[in-house]
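Components:
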Amino acid sequence: MPGTRILDMSGIGKAFGGVPVLADVAFHLDAGEVVALLGANGAGKSTLMKILSGNYTRDAGTVVVNGRTHALRTPADALALGIRMLPQELSVFADLMVAENIMIGGLPVKGAHVDRRAMTERAQALLKRMGLDWLSPGTRMGSLSHHVQRLVEIARALNGDARVLIMDEPTASLAADEVDMLFSIIRRLQAEGISVIYISHYLKEVFAISGRIVVLRDGRNAGDFVTGNTNVDEVLHAIVGNRVGDLYPPFAQGVEGAQDVVAVTGLTVPGWLRDVDFSVKRGTITGVHGLVGSGVEMIGRALFGAAPRAEARSVAIGGEPYRISTPGRAVAAGLGLVAAERKREGIVAMLSLRENMSVANMPLFTHGLHVDRTKEARTVGEWIKRLSIRARDAEQPIGTLSGGNQQKVCLARWLLGDLKALILEEPTRGVDVGARQEIYRQIRQLADEGLAILLISSDAEEVAGLADRSVALASGVVTQTFEQPTSASALMSAASKSAAA
Amino acid sequence: MSQTSTLPAGTPAAKRPIRALLGHPFAGVAMLLVFYLLLIAAFSALSPFFLTVKNLLSIGSNMAFIGLMAAAGTPLIVAGGLDLSVAAVAGISGVVVALCYAAGIDIWAACLIAVAAGGLIGAGNGALTNGLKLNPFIVTLGTMSIITGASLVLTGGLTQPLMIEGFNWIGSGRIGGSGGVPVPLIIMLVAFVLIWWMMAFTPFGRYIYASGGNPEASRMLGIPVDRTQVTLYILSGISGAIAGIIVAAMLGAAAPDSVGKHLLTVIAAIILGGTSLFGGRGSVWGTLLAVLILGTLNNGLTLMNVSSFWQDVTKGAVLLLAVGLDQLRVRSQA
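Structure:
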């Protein structure tokens, strides 16, 4: 069995709204092989896997599974071919039994009833295959720990004739011994001839589990390495490439002398961050990089008062002591935050571009009891022009703009007011490469005009390309502080320091 | 050229004129207006008594208390809240006025006490939904039941007479002689104008739309979502209290169960008027037209001797039809 070519994708192309995301990508897989798929955010990994799992249809290319070409139009097509994708987020039924969770996609029936005995037996057999004999199929799912629930999800994916298992960041929230357990399960499956596509940012794990490493960059193949014959530097180089220079604007000058606009010591968010110190200086971009789950997703909102139970030993904004409380207070103190989950936390989709831009700064546009519509329209118009936001007009519902243009509105809304420091969470998530370059340029320009910017990103390349100084986070603590611009690989290695150890 | 990047491919507005028209922001209100005019035309043709100034004014007067509650309910639902207790508040408000008056309190002071009580109940609804993060449907269903029960307890289920000349003028007076404009109609229209002003022209109005459109994003922008909603619950409670006073003044008596049954009409008017139950979208003019449509339907069918049982069936059917059409409209916009 091992050595048989089970999957061959070639010439794969995909574009969204005219923007190419994948171009002529090839990917193959042998039976019983564990292949790591790597690339920076936006490199096309997820898109490629969504094509393989039938969630997206490809624009070009062929997919050959077990020697036969397949159209692969729907998730059902992929399931029938034995291709299973583990969801990135836990998706279980907490109030159902383990056995029900495993068999939910095809419950065995006897007459009109669920055949409980058959269900339990089959679930038991699947758990045994994974070496999880100790787990009783009758246990209520919600009573299990998070990582065991993840393992049950794997059992669910194996139900039926699974041939290829796609795991997207499976260890993002696992402790070291839990990672070991996952790896031993992957090796068992490998021995059965099941192939695994393993997507991860943790290079240490990738080198521990994979037999081959495939790298994508900007939607194209950028490397295919036998794990035993390569090293971290070579792989990082393939991930990052040489295009850093032209995408990013030049760094700030004279950063050392700049004064602190925000100074934080001992920032703690239970379960996320422990005793983190950082500062944001006038006229500079301070980067924070960490992998997903490292606390990088909390650091900005903790300062902003939008993280539960966030505390700090001391915070000073513009030299004045500040106590973390609510977003309203943070805005009043001169902070602004552009949230990572734009659709959920950044925009009110049904309202117009104008309303979205002005709503956080209504006092500016209030005259007596009224909104000063003329002043509002003028200011919004100026910012549309200044950030070259592409829209029919200011009245277009923001939900119908492209991601990049929505992001510019989210930026502009803070710039209208009296802002001291701007917190940017993953500022280019879901933004295409062209708009990304423009956003980077504008962020730099704002810094040049004297704004203090905190750039928070799980994309090391972005922090390396943009930040004048930066901080690396791992498991909720600062692992390294850089007072100068640094490289993506230095950030990556600092961010993965204690992740799997 | 710049439009190609912002519009979904394949649906250029110019190619589908009907869709473009339906997608216009005022299309919902325009549709209601057309429907209202058709309704008037139809009833005018069917009944000689329908199209008279007297009849049209009486429709307005009869719907005033419902319109008042629907006017205040509109911004609340737009902001993501819901007040099912408003009609029960109206019921207890009349009772409070009657009991205070019977206890020797001046009638206008009694009215103020009732309005304050309505505001207080609204504040309670707001505190439970926003402070404890309870679902507004459940909270106001609960307060509705408590208040309805309390009015029956306070009165023993008996109607309390309230025949006081100045007071009854609120319900049955007219401005401009005996054929003039009914006072309740004026109160309702003033409420609509005030709430329209609040929603369309004040910063608070922006917070209403933002809070309902995306509460999470609004909180991240420092918008006082909870304060906005609590204020609107209070406003809803006050509108219920005033509606109750109007009804009591109109009937010359406070009947504990006189208004509660109209709750569905209030909610139906808000939804028929194009306000989204999920928040973020709606206008007070849509609500006003819907109130008029429901009132006209009632009046016209009565003039045609259609039984009130069939009137309920018709009202429900119109509501479903309107909501269905509106859904099609919103989809064509997306």
